[in-house]
Specification:
By secondary structure, this protein is α+β, with helices and mostly antiparallel strands. It has twelve helices and ten strands. The chain folds into three domains: about 1-55, Molybdopterin biosynthesis moea protein, domain 2, CATH 3.90.105.10; about 70-295, Orthogonal Bundle (Hypothetical protein af1432); about 305-360, no CATH class. About 40% of the residues lie in helices and about 15% in strands. It binds fe (ii) ion.
Length: about 350
């Protein structure tokens, strides 16, 4: 299995992961051979790319962080909760049942992460434009739990962190859909209004939701920056609660790697570069350290170019040495060569070779 950018999808490619539509329905089942109108449609819907099976990648297995079924269930649950708040924000009925449903989803996510002992973020999350908020909320929860676990948080802390993360943008409900869903860059005035969402989420949860104070405080603080230049209060370093410092990085990573109506999705290595550049500025260095050890810049299934002129597909990544993957080589200096496996971490002769970039046009 390998990843192909939406612009390089070709007719006849075999889909390796099922694509779900707006309401969690199966849009294209894995094993389907792509026809031209579908490729166009996927781009319109906002998918950054797809996973396919082909001769280059048939033996490459990509491990999901959580199952696709659970991701769909979690997305559907958070969508239902957001919709129920939106339709009746002043009435508190159903909220306890909502929080019970959320807790059980977070518990399922935690138990899948713990039981499969996922060590790495080694896959691209593929979401569409329409349900971005819900897919994004779920992914921020998944990534935050992974980071929290690597930082040694206990189970009850991971649960609180997961609930804070899945609800981090709940305040956007109170900002107005025309601004939140604007398919364009915001004006300064609109941006100032959007910035209110962390306070709005805090106020709402504090008054009406039966959640611990750590949850609504984390939601209030998820746009604070480590250097004190964030909002709403300009808090810095340990003044910002740990969960908020974790959610802040997970939020930015997922947003950068997502396709939006006004911007293309960044490749994971580019998103990670941004996070590393902001270590100690926007982000807590201890959280950035975990990210650099656990988030693969070139996830399995990515076509890459190496500094010695070789090109191939990443077949394995290693925790703590994410810049040194194992790669199945197909080309050297643009010419096909006999397939060979190159391990940048362990093969002495390749110790100075680096991955230069990912390639989308193959
Ligand atoms: Fe936010």
């Amino acid at each position: 299995m390998r990843f192909v950018d939406v612009d390089t999808i070709k007719e006849g490619m075999e889909l390796a992961k099922t694509i779900y539509g707006k309401n969690g329905e199966v849009m294209l089942r894995k094993g389907t051979f792509i026809k031209n109108p579908f490729a166009k449609r996927l781009k319109q819907l906002g998918y950054p790319g797809i996973y396919i099976n082909d001769a280059f990648s048939e033996d490459i297995i990509i491990e999901e962080i959580i199952s696709e079924e659970l991701r769909q269930k979690a997305t559907f649950t958070i969508k239902k909760i957001f919709n129920s708040i939106e339709s009746n924000p002043t009435i508190n009925k159903n909220l306890n049942s909502n929080i019970t449903a959320l807790k059980s989803i977070i518990d399922e996510i935690m138990s899948q992460i713990i039981s499969t002992d996922i060590a790495l973020v080694n896959i691209r999350d593929l979401k569409n434009f329409d349900d971005y908020t819900y897919y994004h909320s779920v992914n921020v929860a998944v990534l935050s739990i992974l980071i929290g676990r690597a930082l040694g948080l206990k189970e009850d802390q991971l649960r609180e962190l997961g609930i804070s993360a899945i609800l981090h943008d709940v305040g956007k409900i109170f900002i107005g859909a025309e601004i939140i869903n604007k398919p364009d860059v915001l004006t300064m005035e609109e941006y100032e209004m959007v910035k209110e969402h962390s306070r709005e989420g805090y106020k709402y949860l504090k008054d009406d939701f039966n959640v611990p104070s750590k949850v609504y405080v984390s939601i209030l603080q998820h746009h604070e920056n480590y250097d004190g230049k964030g909002y709403p209060s300009g808090l810095s370093k340990e003044q910002i609660f740990l969960y908020a410092r974790i959610i802040s990085v997970a939020d930015v990573y997922d947003a950068l790697t997502s396709e939006r109506p006004y911007k293309r999705a960044e490749a994971p290595n580019k998103a990670l570069e941004y996070i590393l550049q902001n270590e100690g500025k926007k982000f807590d260095p201890q959280v950035v350290k975990v990210i650099s050890e656990k988030f693969a810049p070139f996830p399995v299934g990515t076509f890459v170019k190496l500094s010695n002129g070789m090109m191939g597909i990443v077949v394995e990544n290693f925790s703590n040495t994410c810049l040194k993957p194992k790669i199945k080589i197909f080309w050297q200096d643009g010419k096909p060569v006999t397939q060979v496996l190159v391990n940048l971490r362990d093969d002495e002769i390749y110790k100075d070779v680096e991955v230069l970039s990912s390639i989308s046009g193959l």
